[in-house]
């Protein structure tokens, strides 16, 4: 059985029928090709014993339980496809148990730390004597928009320029699986975007770019790596350990601070663009803390 051809057919189905994002397809490809190379005779003809031995092997190689579970999920999807298409008469993954995964709490920042970070970005953007004022204005806009919306970093850096030109309080963003959702923009974020838009007009090379944060890159917009690097530098200048800061941490701060201040978990799920509420439930510790505080503050028998 030609495993390579079967994997290609599976990836074509995921792209055409399910609208899987390019990053998702690349991840499936890596995981399936790795399994196919490690299993004698290839993945498509493997049995439950072969797959269990492969999972034992990657565990012995030191892969984290989350990585093991991701690889098994890709293999499960692959065999479901083969079975549905009549390319296999059985699904060997049906009897396999998923690796036990811990649920680590997401790294986040306090409201005070987030405030310091944004205040520092605003001061640098407003300093006309700043060495690279264009970069400072761009970074301020990026940080304000990220904390105001909770966008994924890939969604943020690829925003269209029309988001800033309209000055709306809400805009639509296209996220994972090509799904659209509506996210809010605070007044501070809109002001920072307008300041950056005015500065962007001073860059003739990018005058016709459709992106809000254009760059001379293959994609045509600012890379995630450049933003992450600039964000860490900003954190250090704000007196915050740069090791604990990343664009993803600011996204977590957006969600955690909303929940701490009374937001509903379902609303946060929609704002983050999580397809499943179980993904958002990593934040239930925030809700638990809020409930404890509520009881301690308002219950008549609380100490």
What keywords describe this structure?
58% helix; two-stranded antiparallel ribbon; mainly alpha; single chain; hpI Integrase, Chain A; DNA polymerase, domain 1; 14 helices; 2 strands; 2 domains; 303 residues
Please characterize this protein's 3D structure:
With 303 residues, the protein is mainly alpha-helical. The chain folds into 2 domains: 3-84, Tyrosine recombinase, N-terminal domain (DNA polymerase, domain 1); 111-294, hpI Integrase, Chain A (Orthogonal Bundle), CATH 1.10.443.10. The chain contains 14 helices and 2 strands; from the N terminus they run H-H-H-H-H-H-H-H-E-E-H-H-H-H-H-H. The protein has a two-stranded antiparallel sheet. Helix 2 packs across helix 4 and helix 6 runs antiparallel to helix 9. The longest helix is centred in the first third of the chain and has 20 residues, at 65-84. It is elongated and about 65 Å long. It starts with a helix and ends in a 5-residue tail after the last helix.
Spell out the blueprint of helices and strands:
Blueprint: H1 3-16, H2 22-38, H3 48-60, H4 65-84, H5 111-126, H6 133-149, H7 153-157, H8 162-166, E1 170-174, E2 180-184, H9 187-200, H10 224-237, H11 247-260, H12 265-272, H13 277-280, H14 284-298
Antiparallel strand pairs: 1-2
Helix pairs in contact: 1-2, 2-4, 5-6, 6-9, 6-11
